[in-house]
Design brief:
Elements lengths: L1 H12 L6 E6 L8 H10 L3 E6 L9 H8 L3 E2 L12 H8 L2 E7 L1 H8 L6 H8 L4 E5 L3 H5 L1 H12 L3 E2 L3 E4 L5 E5 L3 H12 L10
Parallel strand pairs: 1-2, 1-4, 2-3, 4-5, 5-6
Antiparallel strand pairs: 7-8
Length: 203
């Protein structure tokens, strides 16, 4: 009985078992927490494949992310190391869910404008899977009417947002703009992936 109970508990804890999460990392200081997020997702059984924007690489190296994720890290359309013919389409199709965390104000604006000027933005446009965005930025940037308009625009097409929350910012103040905690992010992914996908977007 004890062995059966232990097995049942482990299955419950690994709520993202056999799921592939495509994690987009953008240019926010909150990227320093990405290692913990990767491990939190892996602890739930997920495979985490990371895509980095050029700005993200200014904060943390692809080698660091590759070591933590134990997967190839993607950031270049045209790298000879890329095993996919059409990399943004192949990655979008391979994922069960697209997660942008941290998502900078710039990245959110580019998504809202429908730009396809780098690998990360292109694969979001190519995705027919749920998209979750976790903003992290200065409070003035987050509360700016243009950022709020961009967020609302993305929500209207079904993208899910987690946070930001009130917490310490890069300038030392405590205000809204701090990245959501890993528990909230994982819970959102669990909720989305637990129900069947209808159409090309999840609300």
């Amino acid at each position: 009985m004890e062995r059966f109970a232990m097995k049942k508990t482990n299955q419950k804890e690994r709520s993202l078992q056999s799921k592939t999460i495509l994690l987009i990392l953008t240019g926010s200081i909150a990227i320093y927490k990405s290692g913990d997020l990767i491990r939190a997702l892996q602890a739930q059984g997920a495979r985490v494949i990371c895509v980095m924007t050029e700005s993200a690489k200014k904060f943390i190296t692809p080698l660091t992310i590759r070591t933590l994720s134990r997967e190839m890290v993607y950031h270049d359309f045209f790298s000879w190391e890329t095993p996919h013919g059409v990399v943004h389409v192949s990655l979008a199709e391979a994922a069960d869910l697209i997660l942008a965390a941290p998502a900078s104000a710039n990245f959110i604006a580019r998504l809202a404008a429908g730009l396809a000027d780098d690998l990360a933005a292109c694969l979001v446009l190519a995705a027919k899977k749920p998209v979750v965005i976790v903003p992290a930025m200065n409070d003035a940037m987050y509360l700016h009417p243009l950022t709020q308009m961009n967020i609302q625009k993305l929500k209207e097409i079904g993208y899910r947002f987690v946070g930001p929350i009130e917490g310490p910012l890069a300038d030392g103040r405590k205000a809204v703009g701090h990245i959501a905690d890993n528990q909230a992010i994982v819970q959102t992914l669990e909720d989305l992936l637990a129900r069947p996908v209808a159409g090309t977007r999840q609300t």
